[in-house]
Every structure is written in C-alpha cells, then in structure tokens.
Design brief:
Length: 192
C-alpha cells in the first residue's frame, strides 16, 4: 500500500487508509451523502471505537445492534449511521466469506481490470460508479494496475481531477473539490 493517502486532513487517519485495505474499502463505501474527508476519516474513528482493531472478521462477528451503536457515536460515523453500519457489516461478511477475511485479496486476485471491477462491484454498497472510482483509486494511488484498468475505471481512469482517486496531496484535494462543485453548478455529474 502507499505510505500516505492525504484525503482526511488527519495524519493518523490518512496513514491508516494507506496501510489498511479494509479502512480504504470502508472509507470508499461511506463516501456518499457526506463530505469526502468525513467518510474517509470514519475508519480511523471506527478502529478507535473497536479497541484499535479494524479487521473484517471482527466487524462481521460484531452484534449488529452493538455495531450500530458504535456508528451512532457521538459523533456519528455517517449521516445515515444505521444503514451504513449494516452495509459495512455486510461488506466485512463478504470479505470473510469470499476472500478469507483478507480485504486486499479483492484486488490481488484480479488479473485484469474487468476482474478487478467485477470483484469490487460484487461488494455490498459498491455500485458501478463506486467500483469504477475504486478501480481508478487503486491504480492511481496504490500502483494496482492490472491490464485494462483504465477501461474498467471508465471516466475515472482519465487525468481529470474528478474523484478521490485523483488525490495525492492537499492541493489535489482542493482541485477535486472545486471540479466537483463546478460540475454540480453546470448540472453535470462527476462522470461527465
């Protein structure tokens, strides 16, 4: 994994994202309907609340009500803490069931961009766009580049600073945020 992934503005949280594949997957899962930096900060808060342990088997085995209480906080890990706790638990259960609890296996077992996209798209909470963005994120920030990754990443494989995949510095973070705001002002999505 990378040494640092500067998306949250918090050094410890950024290092966790760079070093822990599950943290990265959870951050991406939570990146909807809340600010990007808050979504990617949540795995560090979750790890802290779980006794400094963040692994798929632990989360999958946690009592659902207890996990929801963990997400509720305060502060809440997501605006929709209840449904997101369920999604994170489903994500972790899928990693336990299909990848022997190893979140990095989601991409390590993929030999092509299409396989990588398919593995990601099959994860709970990972629709087409989220799977495309994560494919681009792995390639651009973590040097995971199976043949065909650009095509599998769709518009997120280009050089336009349109998503979290394009953040390699705080300056790049601001460029992505400004680009997204400009797209919204034009009535366009980040894929356009």
């Amino acid at each position: 994994m990378a040494q640092r992934f500067p998306v949250t503005g918090d050094e410890v949280a950024d290092q966790l994202l760079a070093a822990n594949p599950l943290a990265l997957l959870i951050g991406m899962l939570l990146d909807q309907q809340i600010p990007m930096e808050r979504a990617f900060l949540a795995p560090a808060l979750l790890r802290e609340r779980l006794g400094d342990k963040l692994d798929a088997a632990t989360i999958a085995a946690t009592d659902p009500d207890e996990l929801q209480a963990t997400f509720k906080g305060p502060p809440a890990l997501h605006r929709f803490w209840g449904s997101m706790a369920k999604r994170v638990q489903a994500l972790c259960q899928t990693i336990v069931d299909n990848y022997d609890g190893d979140p990095a296996a989601v991409w390590q077992r993929a030999s092509t961009g299409d396989e990588l996209f398919a593995n990601l798209h099959a994860l709970p909470g990972y629709g087409k766009e989220k799977a495309q963005i994560f494919t681009a994120l792995l390639a651009k920030r973590f040097d995971v580049r199976p043949d065909g990754w650009r095509e599998a990443a769709g518009p997120f494989g280009d050089d336009t600073p349109r998503s979290v995949a394009d953040i390699g510095s705080r300056r790049a973070f601001e460029q992505v945020r400004n680009w997204k705001q400009a797209q919204r002002a034009k009535g366009l999505s980040k894929a356009e």
